[in-house]
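--- STAGE predict ---
source: upstream dedup step, 1 unique chain passed
mode: sequence only
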Amino acid sequence: MTPKYNFRLIALAVSLTGIMATACKKSFLDENPVSLLTTDSYYKTAAGFEDLVKSCYPLLRNIYQTRQLVLNGTDIFYPGGYGDPKFPTAPANAGSLNQYDVGLNGALPEISQLWTLLYKEIGRANTVVSRASAVTMDETTKGIRVSEAKFLRALCYFYLVQQWGDVPMPLVETQTASKDGTKAASADIYKQILADLTEAESKLPVTASNYGRVTKGAAQFLLARVYLTRGWNFRNSIGGSPADFNLALQFADKVIATYPLAAKYKDLFPVRSENPLTQYTGAQNDKNAEIVFSVQYNTDVLTNKTDAAFTQDVAGGNNLHSVFGGGGEGFPGSKGRTSDYNRSLPIYPLGATIFRLFDPTLDTRYDHNFLEVGYALLPVAGFKPLPLTNANLKIDIKAGDTVVYFRPWNNPATALADRGIDVGGTRKYSVINGSEWGGGYNIVGGVAASGFPSGEPNMWKFWQPGIPYGDAFGTLNETVFRSAEAYLIAAEAIVKGATGGKLGAAEVYYNKVLDRALGANTGKDPQGAKFPEDIKSTVGASYRATAANINIDMILDERARELLGEYDRWFDLKRTGKLIERVKKYNPWAAKSNSIKDIHYLRPIPQSEIDLSFPAMTQNPGY
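--- STAGE serialize ---
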């Protein structure tokens, strides 16, 4: 129920002193403390209204670091260990979001967390819209600021309606407590989203007055995604039609014309080396021309925080560098808890499938996204690798030596000469084949028999060197929209019947993104695994698009490769109607539980909202 969140809006969410800077230490989100003023009087001034609009931006940090309902339990994000020989039968311990069991209900904390954050942001945006008419300031500037708020409101309702379907839709500032939780129909919510975005697109500037604000391009991008989603017309309930696909293509083309692809995939992310001892520049590359809209962070540890209205700071700085699993803390010669490898908590663990969607030889995204080689940072004398062939063997490791090599899935080491000494080979480091990732490496009697690390390659895409140790100290702006996705939106819209693409057919749009990823191998035929769900398979299958082979599954695979870890995956599977099919195929936890079903295309309404509403808000069917 929304009112309980909006009720605290003035006291907490729109405080005059609590908004933190984002893009840099001095940025458009900095505010000057003002005393002896009420919100009613201050927000009528130009300066007060500007501060009110600024207060809408910091909460994006919390929203985009609440990823459980967007990533976990999909076809590419789920825990490892399912095939681990230590477990005779895979235990049901992967969590309800991955297994879709009875624990996935309205009491699950992750359910209420995202709901709360989205309605908090809507409450702030509504305050901007409701108070604008009383503000004395330049009318053009005022119109731009209101459009920023309407864009953010539309963005949050878009996430809400996809996750929960029919939900309450307040559109004005709420200043008193209320128990009303009346739901709006999904089709009406989509109409409101499109109305807000259409107005915003007409008034927002091409280039914002301050980097990080919403622009015309951001509105065009979101219009493309909303029209694409409505075109699929989930359960014939959201008012979609085939004409929506044409509109999605038209807006995608506008984004493509304005935001050129970066020359290389890696140009979008921090500069670094796989070996921390051969240090890197640390340049962030988060203002690349390909990026349409991003959540802003800064380099000041004291101010680089999430929203002050929350008693528990759920994010701090950007945590993309440390929440996808893998990691180097367990490498021989590790310095322990330092920033060299930093921590990598498996909050959003990558399943075995994703590695096999890439061609490790041709696709540069594989090398950028995954840490294939681990290095010792300190020398280790007399290291005991616990080899299977000689339990008394010891080796000396120098700083900078390789200690683990994760072989590409399509090029396993078969000869002993290419294996590590721990399994009877000659290499003085651990060599782990793709079929052994996730805990199946060097297991004897149910116990790992190696001093070397096991597991799978670290998810390395957002790694940022030189930041303080911890999971929320990153300063990289988190990309929300970039034009590579606009190409894939266009390709999907054309596959669904859209016509008139400025670049041509669906495969042309798709291959633009692919060829950028191939770099010097542009035009070649990359091979992903023919059976990516089979960790032992080394048979390849092309993922270059042609007029004959391009389809929704191919586009979903390419979205997985290009947008890995970005705020997309569950929405992609929901939109295309592929959630059940692909989760059962690629997520072994869900396949074993066999619990995922049609009800899971919508999330349960948070039970706390139902309890607070009167008359009681209805729960989504099946929960």
